[in-house]
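Please supply some protein, with fold tokens.
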Amino acid sequence: MDNINTEYLQKCIETLEKSYSMIKASKEGSIDYEMYRNSLVKGFEMTLEQCGKLLKKRLEPYFSSKKAVDTLYFKDLFRYAFKHSLINEDEAERWMKYRDNRNNTAHNYGRAFAKETLSFIEDFIKDAKNLKEAIEKNG
């Protein structure tokens, strides 16, 4: 099994952490706050998508072909990750919620969405780091 390059995922996580630290240090409603909120939302989206792409690569050995893995929906990836002990059940459930939140992003970039994203961003960062480790460890 080939090692999977997680450098870009690491950069996404670091950028997301920086955006989160900067938004916490900004006054809500300020231009800085809005800028970091936008950065946080985009960082969340990019990290989530990168996690899905890398997880797809990690799951390939469990399927008969790469084509079979390519047919999986995003949430299926995390169901299989749990099935194959790459993540635990609680993490799998949180990943489902992250995806639901991401689907809402496409339609609602307003304050309510940003507040929801901020409410779970610490867990998301922790889960993304754990997934990155699982992808590397099983490589």
